[in-house]
Write a structure and sequence with these properties.
Number of strands: 0
Structural class: mainly alpha
Mean pLDDT: 83
Number of helices: 2
Shape: rod-shaped
Largest sheet: none
Number of domains: 1
Low-confidence stretches: 1-5
Radius of gyration: 23 Å
Distance between the termini: 27 Å
Order of helices and strands: HH
Length: 104
Amino acid sequence: MSLPLEPPKSDEPISYNAIAQKEVFAKKKELEKELAELQAMSRIITNPEYYKSFSSQISDIEKNIKSQDIRLEKLKRHAAINKNVVEEEQDNKDNDENDELYVP
């Protein structure tokens, strides 16, 4: 019987072999850096057309960051589920071996 998984936290460390998680995390950090730069530039812009353009870009980047967060959460949840399945299979295998050894 398996217990329900608690959702993984986005600040949990990424496993060394979780390539997809690392790629998503790197993309998110890149987007956050770009967002900070655009926000800084939008504060000093005086032209309304440029401000509108920067605001649109900022909005798009914020949406992309949110989607990367969601993707990272899903990847971490999937990894946790796979880990639990492997552990349960190993436990079942160990129990089956023990049952065979102690047959009266």
